[in-house]
Design a protein that fits this description.
By secondary structure, the protein is an alpha+beta fold. Strands 1, 2, 3, 4, 5 and 6 form a 6-stranded mixed β-sheet that branches. Helix 1 packs antiparallel against helix 2. The longest helix is centred in the C-terminal third of the chain and has 31 residues, at 460-490. The radius of gyration is 33 Å and the shape is globular. Belongs to the relA/spoT family. GO terms for molecular function: GTP diphosphokinase activity. It catalyses: GTP + ATP = guanosine 3'-diphosphate 5'-triphosphate + AMP. This is GTP pyrophosphokinase rsh.
Length: 696
Amino acid sequence: MLRQYELVERVLAYEPEADEAMLNRAYVYTVQKHGSQKRASGDPYFSHPVEVAGLMTELKLDQETIVTALLHDTVEDTLATTEEIERLFGPEVARLVDGVTKLSKIEAMGETERAAENLRKFFLAMSEDIRVLLVKLADRLHNMRTLHFIRSDDKRRRIARETMDIYAPLAERVGMYEYMREMQLLAFEQLEPEAYATITGRLAQIRSSEGGQVDSIALSIKQALAEAGLKVEVSGREKHPYSIWKKMAERHVSFEQITDIMAFRVLTDSDEDCYRALGVLHRTWQMIPGRFKDYISTPKSNGYRSLHTALIFENSMRMEVQIRTQDMHRTNEFGLAAHWAYKQHERPDGQVGWLRDLIEIVDASHDAEELLEHTKLAIYQDRIFAFTPKGQLFQLPKGSTPVDFAYAVHSDLGSFAVGAKINGRHMPLRTALANGDVVEIIKSKSASPQLSWLGFVVTGKARAAIRRAVRQKEKQEIAAIGRELFEEIASRLPSKIGKKAVKDAVKRLGFASEDELMRAIGTAKLDDRQVMEALVPGSAKDLPEPEHWPKQERAISIRGLTPGVAFQLGECCHPVPGDRIVGIRRPGTGVEVHAIDCLELASGIDADWLDLSWGERSTGAIGRIRVVLYNRPGTLAEATGIFAGNRANIIHLENTSRDELFGTYDIDLEVSDLAHLTRIVSALRASDAVAQADRI
């Protein structure tokens, strides 16, 4: 454990103007507050914050960060308060300690709760000052180094899983690869002990049997570059055990099939020398196609810059080579922390791009599970690069689609997207983007996000925005249905009602707004009696029972409302515009629309029935038909040709039975109305390929 004077000397070595007295006060304060508390290892508890502060000095962070590291557990684990810390060490330290404490509280909560309000607060604190995250990552790294002292297997695995799922990805996102690799290795040892032992054992065998092969290859690389007049540093190492295991799992290969276990790093003096070195290596040894990546011209979102290539050495051995400058290497290993160490006057504010996305996700998330899902999406996946037509670069997770790209450019662009051009060609919105694609989004002011997009988008930002838009649309459309029902209910009152009566009804029923009242009516949270009584107290006393109420004077139109949002079309009867329809209203759900002759209705559903109409010029629904085709070549093609000729899209086609003579198919078609569907059925019946065609 670092002694008091050793810690102070470390800080003064790189920050001579640091407040020595404050550093000493903080050291003494944490020792006094933690007192006789012990860690699982048996060491005094205060040894932990002291070691965390030591990790911060290795990154050459400022005195406020060092003091925060010393005090980071005092508010949570002792009688210390944020107010006391502010009085003794100033508002900046108090704010940083409070931010770190918020994340620590998350760890003590349930799985779902953990992702809720405290996670929200932590990301907001982190966006204001990235040092909150730097201290927390050092705190977790030291805890992982001492994890083996915890006796409970379940607790060790829980902490390791949390580290692998949250802290290692966060370290990667701020470019702290040194922290990320060590966290992953320590977590891997706990989560997959057998795999860890096997891989580390095999690596040890290679190390002992290779007879200095890594050093020999490194020397060959250095000599080849020296002969070209390049002054470089070359180092070699085996790949990270967790990285090897991940590659084995992803590619479904054995350890023996991993050919690029050796990795080499070339450090140069300038960007130009990086590219010169790359050219020398490619001329000297055969390059493996598809393995070259230029992160210097297109850095990763966390600032990582390097050239990556893979070569085949003399003995057919594959090796990975990374080429970068000394400054790049420093930034690549410690990310944003390196900026604090070497650019004290240009400190980052923490609002890096991915963090801004996280804040948007936090604001848009509906509940704890959704927040956790979107947060993981934002901090995990590998990245691809895509460009706007004007050459602006955007980094996205692998598997991203034009919709993800549109939301990355701007939320308005995503919300109004109707199509996309990828490299000049019209492509579906669900197309997965590849590295280097140029994406042009086609938009329309009348468009809106579709619920179906959630089936293919991969970014948390896009999912959050789509869900928010769909929820808003759902509220509006349910309120529209509720308003029509409200007018129908109000028409049964003995006298006309005015705006004041509606406002009074909203207050009596305890709603915040008129729209909220309409949504409650639309989802059957209120029955007709309650609404009438709220509008005109005493008016519902002498009403007959609901089954004896007068029939609706007019059908309620669902024109302009969206299937699947404000109402659901019955899966049992698949009503289409032109069918006579009724609605079923159950408490807490939207309206379910059925054809008047639906067998489900005949079975006697215990729910509120509504007389509905499609409204003028209503179009668009899914009709289901059953087609029996003769079992001979070309009949299915002829049937699908009829659908195409009648401009009907096939949504779903299922072969339900087949024998020597016939094949039976249930087909869902996107049609405009009943007349459209009837024309298709008639055309099928007239075909020689079709034995029978009926709507079901």
